[in-house]
Structure formats: structure tokens, C-alpha cells
Specification:
The chain is mainly β and 356 residues long. It is globular, with a radius of gyration of 20 Å. The N terminus is likely disordered.
């Protein structure tokens, strides 16, 4: 019993040190002007904000997470964020593997709630999240329970998917993506080196890929995104590249390789696509995200290693909303950073790019 109490005290002490560290740091919603490329070039990406705790969205979002963490009134912090998604109402969903849940943040109402924390559909190691508001479903991959849980938009558990077809059960489901036009759910199984395809209600359709380094083969794929042409882009992490396929699974193109070159990757991870079909890829070793045109030509890098705005420590999942705001999980800085793809829209005037 004494060992248990001492361990709990040690855990509380470590968490209190984290609270002190972050509580003494400057507010994460920083008013800074950061652009990529920097002036005098025409900017394409602007830094907007970052946040690592719920009360960054307002005092009324203060949480009592005594029952979850320290036994006292405090504020909920991201502990090991993995991926992020945003719905059309502006609610932000962050998978956190140390919380063992999805943190859902309503920045308008300035409150939050947990998805998959307890009860049916309880998560263990949530990795990625995909939202289909058309069918009213939220999909979360759990790489410990080896399932994809399906919830309704209120967070109520509906069912799970554990695999399908001749490939059998999942071994480590990770990246998720939804093709809203074709009404398909894509699930990456990293350990099987395959991509499963399902209907939105969980019925198995097909699989694609096998282990290897040839076109159409994978070596520890991890994240996935779909562009406006229904082309499927996959970070093929162990092959240090991104591969693209058409909606029928036919290989189209690839870009990236290991080494010291402009188009090289070290540890490609998160991937997302904006309204103009630019491809964004996070690299956890380079501590940045990289912007490519649809054909895989590198346009620019954003960020480098560090603690400040626009700097990263192990960037993970990436998501882009309907306004081309770019959400990047900055995992070892315990935060999500937000950027704006400007295209040709920036004219230098001050305006709130966080508004819907």
C-alpha cells in the first residue's frame, strides 16, 4: 500500500511540475506575425495560434480533472496528442494516447468533453480520427484494442470494426480517411502493411497493398488523406515516401526517398490536403511539415525544431478544415499549432483568420 501511495505522489508531483512549467510559460495564443515564405516573398502560410490546454480557449473551459489526474481543481492539458480533426461547427477533436480518449473542444461554448473515456467504446490507445457529418459518424482507430470504434456526433458508441475479408483482423489500425463522394472509409493497418476499405457503416469492401518497396507496396504505412479527385495519398513511412492511388486502388505516383535531398524524408508521418490539392506531410525527424503540389514537387518547408511558435518537437497528425486552416499536432511540445494557407488571399491587412 505504501509503495502505491508513494507512486501516486510521484505521479502527482511530476504532473504538478508540468503544470508549473506550462503555467509560467507565455500564453499559447500568441500575437505574432510569422509567414512562410518570409517577406519580401508573397506569403502562402501564416501562423495563427497554438494551445496545449483547454483553458487556452477561455476561462469558462476550466476543467475539474481531479478524477482524471491530480485530485484537485485544475485545467486539462494535452499529454500525448496524436492526431486532430475539426468538424464544420469548429469543434476540435484530439486523440491523446496518454489520456486514452479523444478530447473534444468546443471553442465557441468554451467547454470540452471526452469521447471514448469510459463505458462502451472505451478507448485504450486512440491514434487517428475521421469525421463524416453526412452520416453523423465519428471513427477512431485504437491500436491497442485493434479496432476502429464508431460513435455518433454526440459521442455515443455505435459499433466497432475489427477487420474484414480474407485479411482477417486488424493487427495495428492507425490512419483513417473518409471519401465523402464515394462513401468509403479507409483504414491503414501498419503491421499488416495494408489499407482496408469499408463502407461508412463498416462493411468490408477490399484491401490494397502488401509489404515491400515496389510501387503499390508498403513498409509501415501510417497516415492517409484524400484529395478532391478521390486520389488517395499514403505516408509510406518505412519506405520514406508518399504514394498516391486512384479510387480503385491503382498506383498513380510517388514522391520522397531517404537521403539528403530536397524531396527526401526522414520520418514522414501525418498527411493532409487543402482545398487546392496541395499535400502537407509532417516529418518527425526534420521537425517540420512540408508542402508539395499534387504531383509531389516540394514547394516549401514550414518550421524547425524548437519550442516557440512555428517550431516543433515530433510533429504527428495533420488536419485541414474547410477554411484551409492547418492543424498540426506538436506531440512533444504537448500542443496543437494552427496555421492558415493563404494562397493569393493575403493583402497585409489585419483580420481574424480564426473566424469561420
Amino acid at each position: 500500500m505504501r509503495k502505491f501511495i508513494n507512486r501516486k505522489r510521484a505521479e502527482r508531483y511530476m504532473l504538478l511540475m508540468l503544470l508549473v512549467f506550462f503555467g509560467c510559460s507565455p500564453t499559447t495564443v500568441e500575437q505574432v506575425d510569422l509567414f512562410w515564405p518570409p517577406p519580401p516573398a508573397q506569403p502562402k502560410i501564416k501562423y495563427l495560434e497554438s494551445w496545449h490546454r483547454v483553458d487556452d480557449f477561455g476561462k469558462s473551459a476550466f476543467a475539474v480533472f481531479a478524477e482524471n489526474i491530480i485530485g484537485e481543481e485544475g485545467t486539462l492539458m494535452l499529454r500525448k496528442p496524436q492526431a486532430v480533426a475539426v468538424d464544420s461547427s469548429g469543434r476540435i477533436y484530439v486523440t491523446d494516447t496518454m489520456h486514452g480518449a479523444v478530447i473534444v473542444i468546443d471553442r465557441v461554448a468554451k467547454n470540452f468533453w471526452f469521447l471514448g473515456k469510459v463505458g462502451q467504446g472505451k478507448l485504450s490507445v486512440p491514434v487517428d480520427i475521421a469525421i463524416d457529418e453526412g452520416s453523423g459518424r465519428i471513427y477512431v482507430s485504437d491500436s491497442k484494442n485493434n479496432v476502429v470504434n464508431i460513435y455518433n456526433m454526440n459521442g455515443l458508441f455505435q459499433m466497432n470494426i475489427s477487420g474484414g475479408g480474407p485479411e482477417g483482423s486488424f493487427e495495428r489500425p492507425t490512419g483513417l480517411a473518409i471519401d465523402k463522394k464515394l462513401k468509403r472509409l479507409y483504414v491503414i493497418d501498419t503491421l499488416k502493411h495494408k489499407i482496408f476499405v469499408f463502407s461508412l457503416d463498416g462493411k468490408y469492401i477490399s484491401t490494397m497493398g502488401s509489404r515491400g518497396s515496389e510501387d503499390g507496396q508498403f513498409n509501415y504505412p501510417i497516415y492517409i488523406a484524400i484529395n478532391s479527385k478521390n486520389e488517395v495519398y499514403i505516408t509510406d513511412s518505412g519506405n520514406f515516401r508518399v504514394q498516391a492511388f486512384d479510387s480503385e486502388g491503382k498506383f498513380i505516383r510517388k514522391f520522397g526517398q531517404i537521403g539528403d535531398c530536397l524531396n527526401c524524408f526522414a520520418r514522414p508521418k501525418g498527411i493532409a490536403i487543402d482545398s487546392e490539392d496541395h499535400v502537407y506531410v509532417g516529418d518527425t525527424a526534420f521537425n517540420n511539415f512540408r508542402l508539395f503540389n499534387p504531383d509531389g514537387q516540394l514547394l516549401m518547408d514550414v518550421g524547425h525544431a524548437g519550442l516557440g511558435p512555428g517550431e516543433f518537437q515530433n510533429p504527428s497528425g495533420i488536419s485541414i478544415d474547410q477554411q484551409d486552416r492547418i492543424y498540426v499536432v506538436d506531440q512533444l511540445n504537448f500542443r496543437v499549432q494552427v496555421f492558415q494557407y493563404l494562397g493569393g488571399r493575403y493583402s497585409g491587412e489585419k483580420k481574424n483568420l480564426l473566424d469561420k
